[in-house]
Amino acid sequence: MANIRTPIPALKLNDGNSIPMLGYGTGTAWYKSGDEGKIDRNLIESIKVAIKLGYTHLDGAEVYKTEPELGMAIKESGVPREKLFVTTKIVTNIADIPNAIRDSLRKLQLDYVDLYLIHSPFWAKSDSELQNAWAEMEEVQKAGLAKSIGVSNYLPQHLTAVLKTAKVVPACNQIEFHPYLQHPPLLEMHKKHGIATVAYGPLTAQTKAKPGPVDGFMAALAKKYAVSEGEVALRWCIDQDVVAVTTSSKEQRLSDYLRATTFKLTPAEIKEIKELGEQKHYRGFWTDKFDPDDRS
Ligand SMILES: NC(=O)C1=CN([C@@H]2O[C@H](COP(=O)(O)OP(=O)(O)OC[C@H]3O[C@@H](n4cnc5c(N)ncnc54)[C@H](O)[C@@H]3O)[C@@H](O)[C@H]2O)C=CC1
Ligand SMILES: O=CCc1c[nH]c2ccccc12
User: Which residues are listed for substrate binding in this entry (predicted)?
Assistant: First the structure.
């Protein structure tokens, strides 16, 4: 099993920093609908378990309302801050990014985050709003409050707008990514500009979109590598240099996911999953914001 002494492999970002290729999410499975002040002790314990198992990449967001738990778990874990890679995201308070990052850092009890993301582009009514927000993100990075800055749920047109005026190219775009949502034009654009792809919902084909065309092949690969289909899905991301952010409240699952770092799919297997996946389209998140047929 991977642990803090046998780290999860990392991907080099375009700013020279490195991001662990498997992350633990504090969003799905942990959303808080009500009082942000009410601390979810189960979440704190789960994050500590994840850290103990070897997860160093921890994914949060202001809208998840879980930053306080993330901060408490980091403190209680006893793992030195610099050994962890902490992401948070902004969208609700997008009109005041300098205050929003300070608020997030206060909740996280941290001096800096490793990665700060604009959670979505859907609040913006014009390209110039996207460009101005990005300029403020650059200031956050300059002030040392975030080591790396990036975006999430941006489509090619949003990246095009940002890149027109950016001094710093976004380090990554965190998007829904799995065999049934592969975004070929977006990934091509990421490659061209050195923007890392970070996948959320990497297990969607196994957890939400069954039955589907990849099922039989994923099952065969799971048998071949003596892992679960989910671990094949995570490895399929990693083998394409896509960082995968997953989660679970179950320790056994979190432990099992780490097996995705212990084997490698062949190029033919990666291609076969890709081609089978292209036969179906499924989106699980932000369905009210995207055109239902948009695969970009
Ligand atoms: N930037 C964004 O807009 C978004 C970011 N995220 C981030 O990504 C993280 C992971 O997102 P997910 O969609 O949860 O990732 P995921 O696709 O890896 O799914 C994980 C979920 O699947 C469940 N699961 C795993 N194996 C299963 C099985 N065999 N049978 C049934 N259920 C199983 C887990 O318990 C967990 O609830 C979030 O916690 C959040 O941090 C998530 C959604 C949107
Ligand atoms: O990041 C995941 C999806 C998401 C988008 N908006 C919200 C608000 C509250 C919890 C999760 C999310």
Answer: 119
ipTM: 0.98
Give the CATH number of the domain where residue 47 resides: 3.20.20.100
In degrees, to the nearest 5, what angle opens at C-alpha 213 toward C-alphas 210 and 214? Answer: 80
Alpha helices in the chain (DSSP H): 41-53, 67-77, 97-108, 127-142, 156-165, 184-193, 204-207, 215-225, 229-238, 251-257, 267-277
Q: Examine residue 136 and state whether it is found in any structural domain, yes or no.
A: yes
**Does any ligand 1 atom lie closer than 6 A to the CB of residue 46?**
no
Q: Is 173 in the pocket of ligand 1 (CB under 6 A)?
A: no
Per-residue pLDDT reduced to its tens digit, 81-114? 999 999 999 999 999 999 999 999 999 999 999 9
242-291 pLDDT tens trace: 999 999 999 999 999 999 999 999 999 999 999 999 999 999 999 998 88
Task: Report the pLDDT value the prediction gives residue 5, as an integer from 0 to 100.
Answer: 46
Residue 119 known to bind ligand: yes
Q: Which domain holds residue 158?
A: 17-201
**In the annotation, is 24 catalytic?**
no
Is 31 a pocket residue for ligand 2 (Cβ < 6 Å)? yes
